[in-house]
Design goal:
Layout lengths: L25 H5 L12 H10 L16 E7 L3 H14 L4 E4 L15 E2 L6 H21 L10 E5 L4 H14 L5 E4 H7 L15 E5 L3 E2 L2 H14 L3 E3 L4 E7 L2 E7 L2 E10 L5 H7 L6 E11 L9 E6 L3 E7 L5 E11 L7 H14 L8 E12 L5 E5 L1 E8 L9 H14 L13 H4 L16
Parallel strand pairs: 1-2, 1-11, 2-8, 4-13, 11-18
Antiparallel strand pairs: 3-7, 4-6, 5-6, 9-10, 10-11, 12-15, 12-16, 13-14, 14-15, 17-18
Bound molecules: flavin-adenine dinucleotide (FAD).
The site of flavin-adenine dinucleotide (FAD) has 39 residues, from helix 3, strand 12 and strand 16.
């Protein structure tokens, strides 16, 4: 096995396009293109495509051949891996980046979630980070030149008892002090914003009001995966599907590359963004992580005419939970709590499905007669304080971007940018300093819910 020289920890990669020797192969030069994806989507490109016929559109990302060596290898083509690769290439000019994915782009949780984005967090470490992400969602379609369908339809956390009020008010006040929009709605205000909630019959749990974040909403999940993959590929990132990373090779105290199902690949730096499989990466590197893998289900009904124009989050007594929104196709999308035990099966318990549907129907009795069209599940990397980890892992040149629990979709734009900065410069930006792994040793936990060391949602 060949050794790869150590990359200085604080080295900043130079934009090397102009320094390429004239005899450098064209493919390598194309990697340096910083003009962004093309062809750009526009009314003109649609017209040109119409005239040119079927051959006009190119694949969204290129199926490149795996090279022997890269400056950075990112493991996992989910939202976080693709966004990290995109920002490495675009913001830091890293020339040779590969994303290695054991299945397909978008096969993981990035294509399985309920698409909710928001920044309504209590703790400053979290609300500043998620606010950065929410602002990036607003301009992401333009940045990627790909319509990710950000829909700021509002997210309302509902109050079902007098005890819920102080908690929601405290969270809303913390957000407003940080300059983040939050509105505490009483029952009348809530019914004005969501007329569908006006009681037509007695509810098991009366809805007393809610905390509204108007800029929260939804984003089309698979468009996020495809948009980042397309944009990263246009900046020269190699996206290699069907390539599982099975081990990490080390030499002289640093990682020298990864073993894959397609052979050994040398790497200057390695980033693991493997979501539900992050615990296995800890095992692979001999560093157990405070992460458990749990299943989370979601389900969607048959499509109906527009009924619900916002996102409702409903945590009801007895620890049940349901969040409900209507997809652009008309289906009512529902999710709830974790299945409750570690698993990699992606199947899901029937009784949990039933509980989520009960919660949703309790909230919106109008949907009671609908048929469930599809149900699915994803494997979530649950940390023991509910907050993520973006840090080095065991070696100076190995990084982990994980612990997203079941709220990591909304974090993708901020996480990709911050993680790329950490990997390229060796220094964590302020935004993610609190997300270091050592907090589990020092006790500086970010327990948003104050729920103790259990897998909980953020
Ligand atoms: C049902 C459900 C609903 C959710 N709803 C929301 C929501 O509404 N809002 C929100 O913010 N979040 C939500 N989430 C959470 C969110 O989807 C995840 O936190 C986030 O997508 C995880 O990051 P990712 O996109 O990078 O993961 P993934 O898309 O899972 O990417 C990880 C990739 O790594 C690959 N991989 C793993 N091991 C290896 C290996 N050894 N070699 C190569 N590749 C490997 C996997 O195949 C996978 O493609 C939900 C999750 C689920 C399951």
């Amino acid at each position: 096995m060949r050794r790869h020289g150590r990359v200085p920890a604080r080295a900043v990669y130079a934009r090397a396009c102009d320094e390429s020797p004239p005899n450098e192969p064209l493919t390598a030069r194309r990697r340096c293109r910083v003009s962004g994806p093309d062809p750009r989507y526009s009314a003109w490109s649609l017209l040109r495509a119409r005239i040119a016929g079927d051959g006009y559109w190119r694949p969204l990302w290129s199926g490149r051949v795996l090279a022997d060596a890269y400056d950075v290898v990112v493991v996992g083509a989910g939202g976080h891996g693709l966004a990290t690769a995109y920002h490495l290439a675009r913001d830091h000019g890293v020339r040779r980046v590969a994303v290695l994915e054991k299945r397909l782009v978008g096969y993981g949780n990035v294509g399985r979630n309920t698409t909710i984005v928001r920044s309504n967090y209590l703790l400053p470490e979290n609300h500043y980070f998620y606010e950065d992400s929410l602002r990036r969602w607003q301009s992401l379609s333009r940045d990627l030149n790909y319509n990710v369908m950000y829909s700021p339809r509002g997210v309302v956390d509902l109050a079902l008892s007098d005890d819920d009020w102080p908690a929601l008010a405290r969270r809303g006040n913390a957000m407003r002090l940080a300059g983040i929009d939050a509105e505490l709605l009483d029952r009348a205000g809530l019914e004005r914003f969501v007329p569908e909630l006006a009681p037509r019959r007695a509810r098991r749990f009366p809805v007393l009001g809610g905390l509204l974040q108007r800029r929260g909403g939804t984003v089309r999940h698979d468009a996020v995966a495809w948009g980042y993959a397309r944009a990263a590929s246009a900046f020269g990132v190699d996206i290699i599907e069907d390539c599982e990373v099975t081990g990490v090779a080390t030499a002289a105290g640093i990682a020298s590359g990864v073993e894959t199902t397609r052979g050994f690949v040398r790497a200057g730096r390695i980033v693991f963004a493997t979501a539900g499989h992050s615990g296995l990466i800890g095992t692979m590197l001999g560093t157990p992580l405070p992460i458990e893998t749990h299943l989370l289900q979601a389900m969607v009904t048959e499509p109906i005419k527009p009924l619900l124009h916002t996102v409702l989050v409903h945590v009801f007594p007895g620890h049940g939970e349901a969040y409900v929104c209507q997809s652009d196709r008309g289906g009512i999308v529902m999710g709830g709590h974790l299945d409750g035990f570690p698993s990699y099966t992606r199947e899901g318990r029937w009784d949990r499905l039933e509980e989520v549907v009960q919660g949703a129907v309790d909230l919106l009795p109008q949907i009671a007669g609908l048929r469930i069209l599809r149900q699915w599940a994803g494997t979530n990397d649950m940390t023991m304080d509910g907050s993520p980890i973006i840090d080095r892992l065991r070696y100076d040149n190995v990084f982990i971007n994980a612990g997203w629990c079941y709220g990591g979709f909304k974090a993708i734009p901020a996480s990709g940018s911050a993680c790329a900065t950490l990997v390229a410069t060796g220094t964590a930006p302020d935004l993610i300093r609190a997300y270091r792994l050592s907090r589990f040793a020092t006790g500086h936990l970010l327990d948003e819910r104050g729920g103790g060391p259990f897998p909980v949602r953020l």
